[in-house]
């Protein structure tokens, strides 16, 4: 056993050598069937066989290359930690392909799963079965895009250490038309978000607070009144909502924290109700919680997305649970807790100020999620309007949303923006009552779409769906 100790015949104690761990980069590809599911299965198989997937790139949809008469590919890359030598790693990857039923019709033709070793430490390998670095990296945008997410500042060819991965990508004239876009899966019954596709449509997420104390709609929805709940959900969907975000714990400042049992008692009936009564409608269900146990139970009941206002920081089990569930998670920017966040809204100029602070802290939350096993393509971001941001700071975030989208380490990820009825709108418009902040909210929703938001989270679904439709017509074409 690796790392064990054994007695020699002379009575001396020696330590057995622990197998050395190596870092390698694996290309992931599929263009048959449920392409993202095949890639996720392959990653799970690698983990199960001791080839630990430590980080993943985004997934990119690309046109076929070489053999053009085939479906589009989903391509990505992953960083792995392995004790296997290069040829043994190749054997393991090919065995995974075979175990997943890979059928290779023709060379470079359709396949349900394709796993290739791109890089292995600093080695150069020239073998009949294996070439490292993989031949053709420098000419393939669909390989360089994901690889540059993982190692932008490392060389591909260690005989040319001055040329970095991003240099190869920058030197490559874009060949894809339209340009490559990332893919963020939401559920088996709804298309992924394509966050870099200019003509994508913005999702309208309807807020369904099952709480008595939320800041603008507390007590309006209760699990015991199934008829009223059905009417509300039907109205949301008829008005244009594609997502429903169900919450059972208020995150308003100074709201009392309820037990996990109480939160579940509020959330689960609503999740089950939607799945039972709206099975024919492709509605996406999000659970608004920072508790791992609630997230797990809600996903088991039929939720598709976990929406965590703490970005996985308030419950240490949240990110590992999201990784185990394999669900998409929205990581929101917040400092502290809902009880302390308003005292933590200082963003020092010498540290870059507000936008740099949000970006830097979200990069850290993405890294924490990846370290816990969450795939990068399963991450959505939220700048956290109203959370550790006061008054004009929220307006500044809306002004600079596109800057956040293009921040190093955050590029290609989709964004959710939740501005609906919040107090900063009331301060600007002079409207003290949250329910009457429709027009101010409308302006913020339009700004969010212009800034590149993929999802807007709203209370007034009918009105904001119309705003989104018009904003999409102006900016998404």
Automatic annotation (TrEMBL):
<dbReference type="InterPro" id="IPR045031">
    <property type="entry name" value="DHP_synth-like"/>
</dbReference>
<dbReference type="InterPro" id="IPR000489">
    <property type="entry name" value="Pterin-binding_dom"/>
</dbReference>
<keyword id="KW-0418">Kinase</keyword>
<dbReference type="Pfam" id="PF01288">
    <property type="entry name" value="HPPK"/>
</dbReference>
<comment type="pathway">
    <text>Cofactor biosynthesis; tetrahydrofolate biosynthesis; 7,8-dihydrofolate from 2-amino-4-hydroxy-6-hydroxymethyl-7,8-dihydropteridine diphosphate and 4-aminobenzoate: step 1/2.</text>
</comment>
<dbReference type="InterPro" id="IPR011005">
    <property type="entry name" value="Dihydropteroate_synth-like_sf"/>
</dbReference>
<dbReference type="InterPro" id="IPR006390">
    <property type="entry name" value="DHP_synth_dom"/>
</dbReference>
<dbReference type="GO" id="GO:0016301">
    <property type="term" value="F:kinase activity"/>
</dbReference>
<comment type="similarity">
    <text>In the N-terminal section; belongs to the DHNA family.</text>
</comment>
<dbReference type="InterPro" id="IPR035907">
    <property type="entry name" value="Hppk_sf"/>
</dbReference>
<dbReference type="GO" id="GO:0003848">
    <property type="term" value="F:2-amino-4-hydroxy-6-hydroxymethyldihydropteridine diphosphokinase activity"/>
</dbReference>
<keyword id="KW-0289">Folate biosynthesis</keyword>
<dbReference type="GO" id="GO:0004150">
    <property type="term" value="F:dihydroneopterin aldolase activity"/>
</dbReference>
<dbReference type="Pfam" id="PF00809">
    <property type="entry name" value="Pterin_bind"/>
</dbReference>
<keyword id="KW-0067">ATP-binding</keyword>
<keyword id="KW-0479">Metal-binding</keyword>
<dbReference type="InterPro" id="IPR000550">
    <property type="entry name" value="Hppk"/>
</dbReference>
<dbReference type="GO" id="GO:0004156">
    <property type="term" value="F:dihydropteroate synthase activity"/>
</dbReference>
<dbReference type="GO" id="GO:0005740">
    <property type="term" value="C:mitochondrial envelope"/>
</dbReference>
<dbReference type="GO" id="GO:0046872">
    <property type="term" value="F:metal ion binding"/>
</dbReference>
<comment type="pathway">
    <text>Cofactor biosynthesis; tetrahydrofolate biosynthesis; 2-amino-4-hydroxy-6-hydroxymethyl-7,8-dihydropteridine diphosphate from 7,8-dihydroneopterin triphosphate: step 4/4.</text>
</comment>
<feature type="domain" description="Pterin-binding">
    <location>
        <begin position="202"/>
        <end position="469"/>
    </location>
</feature>
<keyword id="KW-0547">Nucleotide-binding</keyword>
<keyword id="KW-0808">Transferase</keyword>
<protein>
    <recommendedName>
        <fullName>Folic acid synthesis protein FOL1</fullName>
        <ecNumber>2.5.1.15</ecNumber>
        <ecNumber>2.7.6.3</ecNumber>
        <ecNumber>4.1.2.25</ecNumber>
    </recommendedName>
</protein>
<keyword id="KW-0511">Multifunctional enzyme</keyword>
<comment type="similarity">
    <text>In the C-terminal section; belongs to the DHPS family.</text>
</comment>
<dbReference type="GO" id="GO:0005524">
    <property type="term" value="F:ATP binding"/>
</dbReference>
<comment type="function">
    <text>Catalyzes three sequential steps of tetrahydrofolate biosynthesis.</text>
</comment>
<dbReference type="GO" id="GO:0046654">
    <property type="term" value="P:tetrahydrofolate biosynthetic process"/>
</dbReference>
<keyword id="KW-0460">Magnesium</keyword>
<dbReference type="GO" id="GO:0046656">
    <property type="term" value="P:folic acid biosynthetic process"/>
</dbReference>
């Amino acid at each position: 056993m690796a790392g064990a100790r054994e007695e020699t015949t002379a009575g001396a104690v020696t330590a057995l050598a622990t197998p050395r761990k190596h870092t390698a980069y694996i290309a992931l590809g599929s263009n048959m069937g449920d392409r993202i599911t095949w890639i996720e299965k392959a990653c799970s198989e690698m983990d199960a066989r001791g080839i630990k997937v430590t980080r993943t790139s985004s997934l990119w949809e690309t046109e076929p290359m070489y053999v053009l008469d085939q479906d589009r590919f989903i391509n990505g890359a992953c960083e792995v930690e392995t004790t296997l030598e290069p040829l043994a790693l190749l054997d393991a990857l090919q065995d995974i392909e075979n175990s997943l039923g890979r059928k290779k019709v023709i060379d470079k033709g359709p396949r349900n799963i394709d796993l290739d070793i791109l890089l292995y430490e600093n080695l150069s390998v020239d073998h009949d079965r294996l070439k490292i670095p993989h031949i053709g990296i420098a000419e393939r945008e669909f390989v360089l895009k994901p690889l540059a997410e993982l190692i932008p500042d490392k060389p591909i060819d260690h005989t040319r250490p001055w040329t970095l991965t991003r240099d190869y990508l920058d030197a490559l004239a874009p060949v894809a038309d339209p340009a490559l876009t990332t893919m963020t899966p939401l559920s088996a019954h709804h298309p992924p978000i394509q966050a870099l596709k200019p003509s994508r449509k913005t999702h309208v997420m309807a807020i369904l607070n099952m709480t008595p104390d939320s800041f603008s709609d507390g007590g309006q929805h209760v699990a015991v009144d199934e008829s009223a709940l059905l009417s509300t959900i039907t109205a949301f969907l008829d008005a244009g909502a594609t997502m429903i975000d169900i919450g059972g714990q208020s995150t308003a400042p100074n709201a009392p924290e309820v037990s996990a049992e109480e939160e579940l008692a509020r959330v689960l009936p609503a999740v089950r109700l939607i799945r039972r009564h709206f099975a024919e409608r492709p509605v996406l269900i999000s659970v608004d919680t920072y508790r791992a146990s609630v997230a797990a139970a809600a996903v088991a009941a039929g939720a598709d997305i976990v929406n965590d206002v703490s970005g996985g920081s308030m419950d240490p089990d949240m990110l590992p649970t999201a990784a185990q569930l394999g669900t998409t998670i929205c990581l929101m920017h917040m400092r502290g807790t809902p009880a302390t966040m308003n005292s933590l809204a200082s963003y020092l100029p010498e540290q870059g100020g507000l936008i740099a602070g949000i970006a830097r802290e979200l990069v850290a939350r993405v890294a924490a999620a990846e370290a816990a096993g969450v795939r990068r393509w399963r991450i959505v971001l939220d700048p956290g309007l109203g959370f550790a941001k006061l008054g004009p700071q929220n307006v500044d975030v809306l002004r600079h949303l596109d800057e956040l989208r293009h921040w190093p380490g955050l590029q290609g990820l989709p964004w959710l923006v939740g501005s609906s009825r919040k107090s900063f709108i009331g301060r600007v418009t002079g409207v003290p009552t949250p329910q009457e902040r429709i027009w101010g909210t409308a302006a913020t929703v339009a700004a969010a779409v212009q800034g590149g938001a993929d999802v807007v989270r709203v209370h007034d679904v009918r009105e904001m769906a119309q705003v989104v439709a018009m904003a999409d017509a102006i900016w998404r074409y």
